[in-house]
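Q: I have 456 residues here and want to know how they pack in 3D. Can you give me a structure?
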Amino acid sequence: MPKEKKARKIKSNLPNLAFDKPESVSIWIMGFANLIHRQFVKGILFLAVQVAYIWFMVTRGIGALNGLYTLGTQKQGWVTPEGSKIPILAEGDNSMLLMIYGVAVIVLTIIFAGAYYVNLNSARQMLALRLSGKKAPGFISDLKSLLDQKFHVTLMTPSIIGILLFTVLPLIFMILIAFTNYDKDHQPPGNLFRWVGLDNFAAILGANQLLADTFFPVLGWTLIWAVIATGTNYILGMLLAILINKKGIRFKAMWRTVFVITIALPQFITLLVMRNMFNDYGPINEFLVSAGIITNATRILFLNNVLLARITVLVVNLWIGIPYTMLISSGILMSIPNDMYEAARIDGASPFKLFVKITMPYMVFVTTPYLITQFIGNINNFNVIFLLTGGGPNTSTYYQAGKTDLLVTWLYKLTANVRDYNLASTIGIVVFVISAVVSLITYRNTVAYKREEEFS
């Protein structure tokens, strides 16, 4: 029997904490079962955790949760004390800090719930040992087990706590911002913000005409960009890999190195260079003017014309993205058995049939996770858009967005430029939902999911 199944079976066979058993007191007093079984250090630690949590909740925790509910009631402002003619600045509540403290209490409660569960599990183990007539292990024995049989617990516990504190807590805070009116007009402590429910989602979906007229076009362009950028990089990268790996092509390593150089160069440098090259007065336009192909009055607005700007970012993205697909495809092509190609050629298959029936299915199967990752990455492709066009060309019909802005660059502008944190958080949630839904639906409808056994 595998160790995992054996451990689960032993754990499920532990007796329940019936109220007529002394170990059941651990339900109310953590560590009691350990104390009566002479595991004093472990029992005191459990008890200390419970006492510390209760003390914290009574002294600060309940107040923090109340602050999370109200988000503050006292604004900062000038007041004149009774009997004085000189106004003083009265400190006010800070809605942002109250929210952070409230979320921190929730995360701390989750950690305490985990400790409480461990306490109950330990009590059941003590009961099982007593019923079987065995002696409870000592503290030193428990420590040794944490470095041996339970070494995974030793490694995972700090990681899980760190994730809760430094990932989950900020994530919950940013999600909650979407349900408030925390914007440029509600900056604490001068102005408090408050809960507004789903008003922000309603605003971008149509309740606010300007926001809706920005959100839906930007969402449409984001999806178009993601599909085209992913598809072109994937197909052209695959074709380039097939071409380089084709029999008869000499200096394969050299050709791969040439194309991989674009990866070695930092992406932001490439994008800034491209931005200067495609500028209205950049090298490309200057060359065309000096060659007499265009005039100063007819310079090509690569970055200031909507259609040309979108085409430009797609083309530049090819320069950056194709080498990654080429490298992955090269490895897959070299792993496909030659016997399959030879058998297909004997049966009279054309090169196109070989590609459609052998190469492409293998490529799609192996690269499906990569393809999905690339699609989601392009939905959130901040660098290419922001460093190349800055989201422009700008338009007065959009709110704080340009014609090439993606949802993620619009989100950044709302945060950095106008401090509309509530709208930025709302858009972030929408991006997450889109990414998650597309990823799940796409993967469940791919060959890699439906016909896995055929390629194993």
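Q: Anything worth noting?
A: The first strand starts at residue 77 and ends at 79. Residues 95-131 form the longest helix (37 residues).
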